[in-house]
Design goal:
Elements lengths: L22 H36 L4 E5 H6 L9 E4 L5 E5 L2 E5 L4 E6 L4
Antiparallel strand pairs: 1-5, 2-3, 3-4, 4-5
Length: about 120
């Protein structure tokens, strides 16, 4: 039984455990297998970069308070953040890398910068 390349289906010559006829087929095969995962990660990273940029823009001095509409207008996505920090009194800060926010009452948010990173 003749083995065939996993990507182009051409007959394989050489080693018994060979799976691809050349590097191009090997690269194309793995790219095809990982394409959906790569796009998912790329899209999430783009959302996180945009969120960090919005927080950085609205908080040039390191600590301020803004309304939710200011975040919404710049395309901030509240579903995506990199970490949380819970204070002793139970308040939860959401961070996008070094830029964070704390939800307050009446659609207000306190924006903070973690300079320890």
């Amino acid at each position: 039984m003749e083995k065939k390349c996993l990507y182009c289906n051409e007959p394989l010559l050489g080693r018994a455990d060979k799976k691809f006829c050349n590097d191009s087929c090997r690269n194309n095969y793995h790219h095809q297998q990982n394409h959906d995962q790569i796009n998912l990660i790329r899209n999430i990273n783009n959302i996180l970069k945009r969120n960090r940029g919005v927080l950085k823009n609205l908080n040039p001095k390191g600590k301020t308070t803004v309304r939710k509409t200011a975040l919404d207008l710049q395309g901030f996505n509240f579903k995506y953040f990199t970490s949380t920090y819970t204070t002793r009194d139970g308040r939860v800060y959401f961070f996008v890398y070094d830029q964070g926010y704390l939800p307050l009452e009446n659609d207000l948010f306190m924006l903070v910068e973690n300079r320890d990173i």
